[in-house]
Amino acid sequence: MNDELGNRIKSYYEDPARVLLPRKTWVIIRVDGKGFHTFTRDLERPYSQALADGLDGAAVFVAGQMAGFAMAYGQSDEYSFLLSDFGRDESRMWFDGAVQKLASVTASLFTAGFHRSYSDAGYAAFDARVFAIPNRREVERYFLWRQADATRNSLNMLASAHYNHAELLGKSASEKHDLLHAKGENWAKWPADFKRGRVVRPGAKGAVVDREIPVFAREAAYLDGLIPLPD
Length: 231
Prior knowledge:
Layout: H1 2-14, E1 26-34, H2 36-39, H3 49-63, E2 69-75, E3 78-84, H4 99-117, E4 125-133, H5 136-160, H6 165-168, H7 173-182, H8 192-196, E5 198-201, E6 208-210, H9 220-224
Antiparallel strand pairs: 1-3, 1-4, 2-3, 2-5, 5-6
Helix pairs in contact: 3-4, 5-7
């Protein structure tokens, strides 16, 4: 009876909701902090190195659990993981590409890894979204987009540390740079990881963090070397 009922529930309800990603493609799992505006309100501005280190530690932890891990890119309160199942014909996507499993396990692992790495008290949680990109050039564009967002965010954060919302309302990026120069501040002199984000990549002894990454749009070879080639 129990087996019959369990099989019925699975076949009627669970299995139809099980979405699998296509094989032999590039998969992105982007993890975002949930309610981080509140979580980070008392942190150092415009950039908390402790928070960035905690996120990096979480990303390294998750990368070590992922089958098919290729790279991860982090900025602000997010990390984007790139996976693939390229290689031998019998290679499999992590959790067979089951979307619910990929999202829930990645978010859970990242949350656990963050609390292992970030020493300050408090509660933090992360959610995750999962999608496949069938074209390698589009994968490159995805990371170009996220890095452009990182650059924009860093400028806005630095400007907000010196000016209030009304003073910055409607100002272009170049105008914000001018306002910062008027305060004796130079965005260009800030650390690379603040301006451009960080990359986690496979290393000889596990995943490693690269905090001195280039501008992807200017040094295409860097990003190209991280994105797997199709079979």
